[in-house]
Give the backbone structure.
Amino acid sequence: MKLVKPTSLLVVLLIFATLPSIAAPPRDDIERRIDALLARMTLEEKLGQLQILDGEANGNYRPEHLEMIRKGLLGSTLNVRGAKRTNELQHIAVEQSRLKIPVLFGFDVIHGYRTIFPISLGESASWDPAAVERSASIAAAESAASGVRWTFAPMVDIARDPRWGRISEGAGEDPYLGAVMAGARVRGFQGKDYSAPDKIVACAKHWVAYGAAEGGRDYNTTDVSERALRETYFPPFKAALDAGVGTFMSAFNDLNGVPTSANPFTLTTVLRREWKFDGFVVSDYESIKELINHGLAANEAEAARAALSAGVDMEMVSRLYKEYAPQLIREGKLSKANIDEAVRRILRIKFRLGLFERPYTEEAREQATIMSHANVEAAREVAARSIVLLKNERDVLPISKGIHSIAVIGPLADDQQDMIGSWSGDGRKEDAVTLLAGIKQKLSPSTQITYAKGCEIEGGASDGIDEAVRIARDADVAIIAVGESAAMTGEAASRASLDLPGRQLEMVKAIVATGRPTAVVLMNGRPLTINWLAENAPAILESWFAGIQGGNAIADVLFGDVNPGGKLPVTFPRVVGQVPLYYNHKNTGRPPDPNNKYTSKYLDALVTPLFPFGFGLSYTRFRLTDLRLGASIIRPDGRVTVTVDVENTGDRLGDEVVQLYIRHIAASVTRPVKELKGFERITLKPGEKKRVTFTLAREHLGFYNRDMRFVVEPGELKVFVGANSVDGLEASFRVVE
Ligand code: NOJ
């Protein structure tokens, strides 16, 4: 861990003490200052503001950036980071360019800047928005200190297809959970006012329905009804907007025949007109140029025109705006007002960030903030809250710290790189505590710890399996870390199989066959088809990719210092052929019936999941009783309170996530069999009982009717309260006009 020198800490305290915390000018002033700038800008300078270019992978800028910035022809970069480098470029922009417009430095700060937290899917498994907000807030402070004031996050794409590698970057399959997590992440990144020196502006991406890629193949076509857009894919974006998100990123996918980076319905009708979004939209990486491959544009000029006129303000990496806008204006195919509006939106965010008032960061602050003791501790706590206990037969877990010997096995058990996951910002593998290291730190020297890799994550070599079996046989307990590599998840990492890759399952089988108590620790970025494990491994912990403190956090859970309380934010299927499999599906006219062939099911697989959405166990037990509704009949604008008692009936302190679902029995349009509408993660001591209260109101009870109007219709509703999406208590009430 990095020690903070007292002198640098003092410098930081002094810096914060002397800086006004809020730098942005008042909103009216901002518009006046934009007017003044626009009046002075040449067309070339305006187009410079609409451009974002990529730095080098190591965080450096490219030599070409210096000249472009000096001439006012580049408004933003991505991947350039670090106080020294960003200050160098900023110095040129603010002191040497004609109009002194500061550069906006963007970066994919997805689950941490340098202090890497669990992947976003893992964080969502905490069902703890406060933990997620804290993680984003720490990421923001580190990022801002390094000069990066813009993150391309949160990724809020709903994903119901685990073949899609990017399911790891979002909050899972559910629009309600996704919306809560989107709001938490935006609040964490931006705070109340993102001009504060430790805050950054967020970017809701990828607008929109990118997660619906056909076949789970990345970048693939999507065809999604307006109803599904509004009910499933939009809500997390709307929640980000309601939390004040400053920017959106248009996506790569074709949506109903009009690619999302040139789609006037999503970019203008919904985003600007309905939702009144006044920040800016950045394209995804070359997604404007890709309009040619999509077949929406015959050439580069047409691609530029389609994207800009649909509402994409800033172009990432391709340079078509710069290249073709002057000609398009001359030909009357693009208006000057269109360009001015895009520039205005970008400058507005630069002003709101306080970049004009405070363009630089301080190297001393960067040094003191990044990987501070508090940040690293937080990463450990959030990681522990993200872990989901999937199985624990005969209480194999937690393991006693007094155990005599333990075998730590598997290709991911001592792997620093994969533990931090994909999109790991400025994270370094050297910072990561592996599971083996975490276990060693946890136990006293009187426990004998042996380690064998056993096999690779992928690939056929099996010569290490015998050694793994040998050390398992000699130990009191075996811990096996298996799963995916980080590179098998994230962008361009779709898989057609959801099985454990390589020889890993073969190795686990051999170890379980020894009969030693065994716990499997999964590290992965998507639901996996782990039927054999679910049936035969005594214990399974889902740890996702838990970040730099993953090894410590998993050890905290394995040895009982933390009682796991995470829940799945996504359904685990039994076989890939069931995909897409999600809890809030429609009922069909012929719901599955084992006694009737002509019902909706498979000949060769069950229709039920292996582990349902919302599922997760604990080392203690909980009982839910006394479900009560505050009313049995309400008006469409009325509210219903829902209360339930939750009791810890076991013998350990633990967390339960109480989940509230509803179902409309009949309506003018069909409704899902269950929809999550509330949840709360609570901590209870052994024997303790708490009453949990939810309120159902218009926003929970309404849906889009046949005219696409959001209404609460009369009718009967069922209410389910439980510890996952399958089991629970039931009640019902009616809405009457
Ligand atoms: C492409 C990815 O789709 C997007 O999520 C990311 O923000 C950009 N590249 C920039 O790295």
In short: Residues 78, 108, 152, 205, 284-285, 491 surround 1-deoxynojirimycin (CB under 6 Å).
